[in-house]
Write a structure and sequence with these properties.
The protein has helices at about 15-30, 50-60, 80-85, 110-115, 130-135, 160-165, 170-185, 185-190, 195-205, 240-255, 275-280, 280-285, 310-320, 325-335, 335-340, 340-350, 365-370, 380-385; strands spanning about 1-5, 35-40, 65, 105-110, 125-130, 140-145, 150, 155, 215-220, 230-235, 255, 265, 295-300, 355-360, 375-380, 395-400, 405-410, 415-420. The protein has about 425 residues and is α/β, with parallel strands linked by helices. It has two domains: about 1-255, LarA, N-terminal domain (Rossmann fold); about 260-425, Alpha-Beta Complex (2-enoyl-CoA Hydratase, Chain A, domain 1), CATH 3.90.226. The longest helix is centred in the first third of the chain and has 15 residues, at about 15-30. The protein is globular.
C-alpha cells in the first residue's frame, strides 16, 4: 500500500516534513519491530538516503539492528565515506554486502520468461538472490531507502532493485544487467516498466512475500541554490510508490535539449567517481543527447581504475569498450565474459558505438591505458585550463575560444535527450 506521497517541482521538501512522514510510516508499517535499513552507498550521496537513514537511527536507536548498504558490485564503503553519507551513525551497525558470498537463493525465474521479455535474444534462468542478512530479518521491518532516477539497467532506479540487485548475488546482477544491455538501454532508460523490471517484479511477487519491506523513495533535482534537493517523497510497501515516484522523476530528471550538442563536458566529483565502472554514467546519461560525430569530454579527477574489483578491472582492460554486436559475439565465445555478464553489459553501456567519441581527462591513469580500452585521452590540467569549471553553468556555454558546449556537473541527477534526435531507439 501507499503510505505517503508528496511532490513539488518548485519547493524543496523540508527535513522536518521528511522526518515526520518517515516516522509516521514506520509506525504504521511495523510498530515496535526491529529494523534493517538498506540504503544506497556513497555513489548515491545526493539521493537524500543518507540523511533519511540518519533520521531513522536517531529516532529508533536500539531498534536499528543492521544497516546494509546496497553496494551491488561496488567497493565497500570506508569510514570516511560512511561519515560523509550517514553522519553520526556508529560504524559497527554497518554490514558489508558481498555479492559473491553470503547469498541465499529464494527461487528462480524460468528461462522461458527471460526469452519472452528479451524478444527471443536470451534464454537463461534468473536466480532471485538476496544477502542472507535480508532473509534473517524476515521478522523485522526492512526499510529500503533510495532515489528514483533514470537508470541504464532497470529504466528507473531503486524500489525492489535495491534489495534484489543491490543486495543480490553476482549471478543475479550479471544476468539482469546483460538482459538490459541486449534489449537496448536506449529503449528502457527513463521507463518504469521494461524487461529487466518485469523480471525483478516477478521474482519479488513469487519469492519475496516473506519480507516485510517498506520503501522510502526520493526524487531529487537541482534546488534554487544549485545543489541537489529532494522534490518528491514516496513511501509504501508495493509498486504504487515506485510508479508514482517514476512518473515524477521522468518530469524532473529527464532533460530535453532543443538541439543535439556537438560537444558535451561532464564533471565527475572525485569523492563519488573513482572508476570507469562508475564514471561511465557520464556516457549512459548523455548518449541520447550528443550529436553524431560529437565529442563527450569526461573530467574525472578522482579516476583511479577501470573496475571496482580486480576481476572486473582485468576484464575491462582485456576487452575494452567495443560496439554492442562485438561484445555480444565475444560473450558467446569467451567463458570469462560468460561468467561475468555484468561486465559484458557494462562494456556495451560504455561504448559510444562508433557514433561519437569519448575523451577521459585524468592524471591518475596513464594515457596508453585509457586509449587501450577504447577512449581518447586528455590531461586534466590542460582541460581545466580550457574549461573554467568554477564559472560554468548547467546547459550550453561558450568558452573563451568561442567554442559552444553543453555542461553537466553531475550525470547522476538525470537523463539528457536531444529533441531533434529522431533516430534514437528511445523514441520508437
Amino acid at each position: 500500500m501507499l503510505y505517503y506521497s508528496i511532490e513539488n517541482e518548485d519547493i524543496t521538501i523540508s527535513p522536518e516534513q521528511i522526518k515526520k512522514a518517515v516516522i509516521d510510516c514506520i509506525e504504521s508499517a511495523g510498530p515496535g519491530k526491529p529494523l534493517l535499513i538498506i540504503p544506497p552507498d556513497i555513489t548515491r550521496v545526493h539521493s537524500g538516503a543518507g540523511t533519511i537513514t540518519e533520521m531513522i537511527w536517531n529516532e529508533y536507536r536500539d531498534k536499528v539492528k543492521d544497516i546494509l548498504p546496497a553496494i551491488g558490485t561496488h567497493k565497500p564503503m570506508n569510514g570516511f565515506e560512511i561519515d560523509r553519507m550517514y553522519g553520526d551513525i556508529p560504524h559497527e551497525l554497518f554490514r558489508v554486502h558481498n555479492c559473491r558470498k553470503d547469498i541465499i537463493t529464494l527461487g528462480k525465474i524460468p528461462g522461458s520468461f527471460i526469452e519472452e521479455v528479451s524478444e527471443g535474444k536470451l534464454n537463461y534462468e534468473w536466480p532471485v538472490q538476496v544477502n542472507k542478512l535480508v532473509s534473517e530479518h524476515a521478522g523485522s521491518l526492512i526499510i529500503s531507502v533510495g532515489q528514483v532516477v533514470p537508470h541504464e539497467v532497470t529504466g528507473m532506479a531503486n524500489y525492489n532493485k535495491n534489495v534484489f540487485i543491490g543486495c543480490g548475488g553476482y549471478e543475479s546482477i550479471n544476468k539482469s544487467h546483460y538482459l538490459g544491455a541486449v534489449y537496448g538501454m536506449e529503449r528502457l532508460m527513463g521507463k518504469a516498466m521494461n524487461p529487466v523490471r518485469e523480471v525483478i517484479n516477478r521474482g519479488d511477487r513469487l519469492f519475496g512475500k516473506q519480507l516485510n519491506i517498506l520503501y522510502i523513495l526520493t526524487v531529487v533535482a537541482t534546488g534554487p541554490d544549485g545543489w541537489p534537493a529532494i522534490k518528491g517523497l514516496f513511501i509504501g510497501s508495493d509498486i504504487e510508490c515506485f510508479t508514482k515516484a517514476s512518473s515524477f522523476s521522468a518530469r524532473m530528471n529527464i532533460k530535453i535539449i532543443e538541439k543535439a550538442p556537438e560537444k558535451i563536458v561532464v564533471f565527475l566529483n572525485p569523492f563519488e567517481y573513482r572508476s570507469t565502472w562508475l564514471g561511465n554514467k557520464a556516457i549512459y546519461r548523455t548518449r541520447m543527447a550528443i550529436a553524431d560525430k560529437g565529442e563527450l569530454i569526461i573530467i574525472a579527477p578522482g579516476l583511479r581504475e577501470f573496475g571496482e574489483d580486480k576481476t572486473i578491472d582485468m576484464l575491462i582492460r582485456k576487452y575494452g569498450y567495443r560496439t554492442s554486436w562485438k561484445i555480444i559475439q565475444l560473450a558467446e565465445k569467451n567463458h570469462d565474459l560468460q561468467n561475468n555478464l555484468a561486465v559484458a553489459a557494462h562494456l556495451i553501456h560504455g561504448s559510444p558505438e562508433n557514433r561519437f567519441s569519448v575523451t577521459y581527462c585524468t592524471d591518475s591513469i596513464r594515457e596508453d591505458e585509457i586509449r587501450s580500452v577504447g577512449f581518447d585521452y586528455a590531461g586534466l590540467q590542460k582541460i581545466k585550463a580550457k574549461y573554467d569549471l568554477e564559472n560554468l553553468r548547467e546547459g550550453f556555454n561558450i568558452n573563451r575560444n568561442g567554442e559552444e558546449f553543453y555542461y553537466i556537473s553531475n550525470p547522476a541527477l538525470g537523463l539528457w535527450i536531444a529533441k531533434n534526435r529522431t533516430n534514437m531507439k528511445q523514441n520508437k
